[in-house]
Design brief:
With about 150 residues, the chain is of the alpha+beta class. The protein is about 15% helix and about 35% strand. The chain has two domains: about 1-35, no CATH class; about 50-95 and about 105-145, Immunoglobulin-like (Sandwich). Strand 3 (about 75-80) and strand 4 (about 85-90) form a beta hairpin. Belongs to the small heat shock protein (HSP20) family. This is Molecular chaperone Hsp20.
Length: about 150
């Protein structure tokens, strides 16, 4: 009430100078949440697929990628310089023409992940295996990038 008298704001239907901006902000937030929840929107933020972990020990780097439902022979795995590239295509069977989705989080299509490795690699010492939808790629380190024990004299 004091602010209305001090700044001469209208007293009917207007609480403070930013009330309309606050109302519009809440409406925009509500609209954004609604649009993000709709399946199949091409402009939605891309999900990172596959999810990966990168670890290392003294001898190798290990990249573990979750690839459920993808066969090993459908993957293309390449190493070059300090990068590992995993490329493939995920297919999901059609659930029918007259299906109404209530939630659609699994997407189909081509994917490619490029993982930067923290050190030099030996491209001749790369092993990959797939077990229960988990891809593990072991990449040997170059001798020059391995830790070396220095003796103090």
């Amino acid at each position: 009430m004091f602010a209305r008298r001090l700044f001469n704001y209208p007293s009917v239907g207007w609480d403070h100078p930013f009330a309309e901006l606050n109302r519009m902000s809440r409406q925009m937030d509500r609209l954004a949440r609604t649009l993000r929840a709709r399946p199949g929107m091409p402009w939605m933020a891309a999900k990172v697929f596959p999810a990966v972990n990168l670890t290392e020990d003294k001898e190798k780097y290990y990249v573990r990628a979750e690839l459920p439902g993808i066969k090993a022979d459908a993957l293309d795995i390449q190493v070059q310089n300090r990068k590992l590239t995993i490329t493939g295509k995920r297919t999901i069977e059609s659930e029918g023409e007259n299906v109404r989705y209530h939630r659609k989080e699994r997407e189909a299509g081509k994917f490619s992940r490029i993982i930067s490795l923290p050190g030099d690699i030996d491209a001749n010492r790369v092993d990959a295996k797939m077990v229960d939808g988990m891809l593990t790629v072991a990449i040997g380190k170059l001798e020059s990038s391995k830790p070396r024990q220095i003796t103090v004299n």
